[in-house]
Amino acid sequence: MAYQTFQQEYLQIPVVTRAYTTACVLTTAAVQLELITPFQLYFNPDLILRNYQVWRLITNFLFFGPIGFNFLFNMIFLYRYCRMLEEGSFRGRTADFVFMFLFGGLLMTIFGTFVSLVFLGQAFTIMLVYVWSRRNPNVRMNFFGLLNFQAPFLPWVLMGFSLLLGNSIIVDLLGIAVGHVYFFLEDVFPNQPGGGRWLKTPFFLKMLFDTPEEDANYNPLPEERPGGFAWGEGQRLGG
Length: 239
What we know:
- By secondary structure, the protein is mostly helical.
- Helices cover 55% and strands 5% of the residues.
- A 3-stranded antiparallel sheet has the order 2-1-3, with no helix packed on it.
- Helix 5 packs across helix 7, helix 6 (94-115) packs across helix 9 (170-188) and helix 7 crosses helix 9.
């Protein structure tokens, strides 16, 4: 019974969020069990180009470090905001969501080459948080019960939290920068005088991922609780 309940809940997670978070958890578990090592996963342009280890283009987004507070913190935020994006502004637009993943991943890979980052998963999480926060500007957030602020400030609050923990903020800045580029090209520039839509999802992605009908039993997460936990809980203004 417990397994069936877990399976049902697991299958309720939208497909992109389910695939990405599962891959991250399994990759971390494989490292923890010493089936693989981080040295086989990290981003290294020389090994990719000269030794054709192309899997590093993907695996560097899947490893968030050993299991601990930092890993759990990142997984919670990754799962919550990835799912809320997929069930919110990308509902019924799976191909567009996958294209955002590809676009963001490509930009981070290019930028990561110049700033010598070897794992980009945390930056990718910040990108998802940034896009969600800009598309939900009226949501009020509460961080650890200490700070109250509007959703667009959430990525910057997370960056400040990383700074307090002694982590490099380059990762956070990269996620914010890539998230802003996507948000500007997708949400801002097309609505400007003389603007246009530069980001167009390839047709083959639409053929692969978009389906004409939605599951009537689909149960999205409520966006009234954008963080889902004490450090990210919020509510819409005027609600």
